[in-house]
Amino acid sequence: MQQVAQNYRSGQLAVLDVPLPSCRAGGLLVRTLYSLISTGTELMKVNESKMSLLGKARSRPEQVAKVLETAAQQGPVSAYRKAINRLDSYTPLGYSLAGVVIEVGRGAEEFSVGQVVACAGNEFALHAEVNWVPRNLCVPVPDGVPATAAAFSTVGAIAMQGLRQAGPQLGDTACVIGLGLVGQLLVQLLVAAGIRVVGLDVVPERCSLAEAAGALVAAAPDSEGLRQVEGRLAGISAGRGADQVFLVAGGSDSSPVQLAAHLARDRATIVDIGKCKLDLPWNAYYEKELDLRFSRSYGPGRYDPTYEMDGVDYPAGYVRWTERRNIHCVLDLISAGAVDPGPLVSGVFPIGEAESVYDRLSTGSLPGVGFLFEYPATEALPQTPPPGAIPRRSAEPRPGAQVARHPGAVRVGFIGAGNYASSMLLPHLARMEGVQLARVATSRSLSAVNAQRKFGFESTSTDPDAVIGDTDITAVFVVTRHSSHADLVCRALEAGKEVFVEKPLALFVEELDRILATVAATGNDRLMVGFNRRFAPLLTTLAAQFGPVREPGLLRYLVSAGPLSPDSWYADEEGEGSRFVGEGGHFIDTASSILSSEPVEVSAVGTGHAQDVQVVVRYANQSLATISYTTDGHPRFPKETLDLSVGRRSAQLENFRRVSVWTGRRRRVSRVFTAPDKGQRAELQAFLQAVRTGEPMPISLASLASTTRATLAVPASLASGQPEKV
Question: I need a labelling partner for 66 at 20 to 30 A (CA). Which of 354, 433, 659, 662 fits?
Answer without folding.
Answer: 659
